């Protein structure tokens, strides 16, 4: 349906609530969209903490977290369709770049990255590639397509950044039980 084309009546029907209930919580459709984005971001941070507790290997946490994010198609649709999205997209992209940077920095500390990796550039390049995959995913119809695109992007970038022995330990596919939304 998409943000722009969705009417408040359609949103209420899908959510199973009345207009009064919707407007009792949200002043506008945009406020509802922002609440959905905030919820998805909190879910992603919860998934990151769970993955960190499970793996300890920062590159595996990165792979899994990116797959969890790719499952959140509603976020991609809202982020790039709602009016004034640029400010929200910019801040979300900065947070994502910081999270990727932190995981790469941890991997570097553990000796999993090749020598002389520029963490700022690498994090920016990975996020740029993943935003591209996300945008392309908006046009795709099968559920598995985003996971395939994410895996390709991660393999390309992490192969260039990580030491071969660190790559051998990675499971490239999506995690099966974390972050389903």
How would you describe the overall organization of this protein?
This protein is mainly alpha-helical and 181 residues long. The chain has one domain: Tetracycline Repressor, domain 2 (Orthogonal Bundle). The chain has helices at 8-15, 19-25, 29-55, 58-71, 73-81, 85-109, 119-137, 145-161, 164-168. Helix 3 (29-55) packs across helix 5. The radius of gyration is 18 Å and the shape is elongated. The mean pLDDT is 81. Keywords: DNA-binding, Transcription, Transcription regulation. Residues 7-26 bind DNA. Residues 1-44 form the HTH tetR-type domain. This is Regulatory TetR family protein. InterPro entries: Homeodomain-like_sf, HTH-type_TetR-like_transc_reg, HTH_TetR, Tet_transcr_reg_TetR-rel_C_sf.
Give the structural class: mainly alpha
The helix count comes to 9
- Overall residue-averaged pLDDT value: 81
Instruction: Spell out the helices and strands N to C.
Output: HHHHHHHHH
Cα(first) to Cα(last) distance is 18 Å
Unreliable runs: none
Classified in CATH, the superfamily is: Tetracycline Repressor, domain 2
Which CATH first-tier class would you pick?
A: Mainly Alpha
CATH architecture: Orthogonal Bundle
Q: Tell me, briefly, the overall form.
A: elongated
Which fold does the CATH topology refer to?
Tetracycline Repressor, domain 2
Helix content: over 70%
Counting DSSP E segments of at least 2 residues, the number of strands comes to 0
- Multimeric organization: single chain
Q: How would you characterize the largest beta sheet?
A: none
When the domains are counted, the total is: 1
Organism: Actinokineospora auranticolor
GO molecular function: DNA-binding transcription factor activity; transcription cis-regulatory region binding
Domain HTH tetR-type: 1-44
Protein name: Regulatory TetR family protein
